[in-house]
Amino acid sequence: MKKVLLIIGLFLITSLSWGMLSIEEAMQAIREFEGIPDLKLKYERLTNEYSDPWGGEPIPNTKIAPVTWPCYVFTTDYADGSYDRVYIVEPFSGKVMDWQDTKAIKNEPVLASVKDWPPPSWIADIAINFIRNKFLPDFDPAEYKIYIKYLSHIDSAATFNWLEYNPTNPQQSWPADADWPSDFPPPLSGFTVIKFVHYVTDDTGDKFHSVNSYFAIWVGFTSGKVLSFQYRHYPVNISLTPDISLEEARQIVLNYCVQMSQADYAEITQESKGIVFNGKLPPDHLSYVYKFSIRIYRNDPEYGLLFSGSGIFYVDAHTGEVWLVDNTLGGSGKTPTKEQVQEFKQKIKTFKKGRLSWKIFINQTREFALFPVEDRGKFYLSAPDAWNFGVIVEEDKGKVIIRYSGKSRELERANVLIKDGKIYVPLNAVLEIAGYEAKYGQKEKAIYIHKKGEKKEKAEGISAGMLSLSALSYVLCKFLRILA
Does 148 lie in the same domain as 214? Predict the structure, then answer.
């Protein structure tokens, strides 16, 4: 009975959650995917991590989503172990994005030597046929870079490595270093993983990596079965004609470093383009960006100009929006000459400036962010964004109420923003009821958050969870009380 109430409660939550599928609808998507109408399933949790893993072995019940927003995790529910599978379902599309057959993994025989492995083409053919049969009938491997994991050793060191596979060369063999030293224990698995990393070409003819599509297929060496997979595939629904040139993007990002990092000198060491996740929900989740790695130098009164760190920055190719993805303090670098510094300071005065809008950074790398709505100097969150902090936004008979873990607060209508028919609630109210504190970086227009009472980290490292278990438990209890 409790399980039934749990499912009903979650159904009510997800039916009200901005176009998300209900738990039962997600279960039905799994049954249709498997072709087993009566498959017994158990809802486990929402994912709260994102990863594009290059790692090898699937580990039961630790699967993380291939997208940046929460997804449903399910397992099969058979006491006799006849089915032992794990699923992750994307809640907006109903796609099974992650699947693992734990029973088949355990039953796959172990091959002690790479010399006993089938050729790379055999693994690639199985994976490509699986993708075409299950996901994309017109899948074209030429649009992807393909990597197959293999065992490697150099002298006495043993490790894993990646073979870049060429689908036009079916005779391609394993590299010369593909083997396992005889004095090492044999590998613990009888399978490997093949990855398909998507590349697109923009309207200027440049080819670059895009996160919109990605496949990882685990194949058993002996059985030839697919034992696990992870994938995502979204159409590229943004223009690939840049509104900002590469030279303008260079100027924007260097200007940003001077203005926001107080740099006396900055130099670009690497640059590329890419399609990345931007922290928003589908269908607005992709951005076309320039990527820059930059060395930053600052003048020290005692020691002169010193290398102070490196940063990875994105510049939106349409809007000129800038955000810092990662940064490293300290290190080494070739110090520029006084003439180079003076020339840089003169040029920077004429450089184009980018557009900055406020962001809430929610993880340590700062690659993904929430975008609050700013209105007359105040910040607001949409209902889905508030949900990232475990806060429920409700409208009942004209009242707007926010709830979190047994607490509730009615908001005055004057403090609620209505925009395009959607409700936005004050950021401060969400953070307060959920127990968060915020630090505002005025120059970089960044809001860094952390839980109250936790040891404070540097602003660059502050993070916030997507949806805590305690918050989810509260949501369930709330709807179970309604049902009662």
Answer: yes
Position 198 pLDDT exceeds 90: yes
Shared-domain flag, residues 41 and 59: yes
Judge contact between 467 and 387, C-beta under 8 A. Answer: yes
What is the pLDDT confidence band of residue 203, given thresholds at 50, 70 and 90?
A: very high
pTM: 0.73
Mean pLDDT of the chain: 79
| Cα torsion angle, 403, 408, 412, 413, sign | positive
Strand order in the sheet with 392-396: 392-396, 399-404, 407-411
Return the DSSP state at 429.
H
Q: Find out whether 327 and 256 touch, Cβ atoms under 8 Å.
A: no
441 plus 325 within the same structural domain: no
pLDDT band with cut points at 50, 70 and 90 for residue 215: very high
Burial call 156-174: b when 16+ CB within 10 Å, e when fewer: eebeeebbebebeeeebeb
Strands 226-233 and 207-220: antiparallel
Find where tokens 């994309």 sit. 136
What is the total count of domains within the chain? 4
Domain identity same for 268 and 227: no
Domain contains 238 = no
